[in-house]
Amino acid sequence: VPRGVVVDRPVVVLHWSEGEGVASFPHTIVVAEEGAEVTVVERFGSPAVEHLVDGVVELVVGDAARVKHLAVQEHGPKTWSLMFQRAHVGRDASLWSSVVALGGDYARLRSESRLEGQGAESDLLAVYYGDNAQMHDFRTLQEHAAPNTRSDLLFKGAVEDTARSVYSGLIHLLPEAQKSRAYQTNRNLVLTEGAGAESIPNLEIEADDVK
Questions:
Q1: Which end of the chain has less neighbouring CB within 10 Å, N or C?
Q2: Alpha-carbon distance 72 to 50, whole Å?
Q3: Neighbouring C-beta atoms of residue 117, cutoff 10 Å
């Protein structure tokens, strides 16, 4: 999205992965130049076949730009999904990134947000549900590399039957991230005996004036 351009309707991308015993490698790159605004909705799906989806999403949010990104994962029950998402957020820019995770046999998402410019902000949201023997595996990084930055993470999910979820998140505040604020919340509902949910929060704080 070129500098100063506002895209007033969502851009929708559909990734459909088929084929028994094969792999797909979807790759999305979103670049919003200075002052641009865009919303991108990605839907990931597959039929009930043994399939590996190894995907990458790159979000480059320029100075004073605004990016909203929504990913909906609805893979079939035999699909393994390994997704990596990384965002670079510039000065006075904002990122709103959300995930809905419903499908897959084993589904991993690693989501990283690096706040590189003063005044940068990111909001990371996720909702997930697992049943039967599903496994949802979330790993996040909120990295503050500039002063007066803010990040807020909220992941909420439910599991039943013998499904499991694991959330492991790191907030990293570098020495230059003075006056920054970072929040991290993971909430789970375990609906039946035999299901399980784990939360593993981590903090690495190298600045002395943060919240």
A1: C
A2: 20
A3: 20
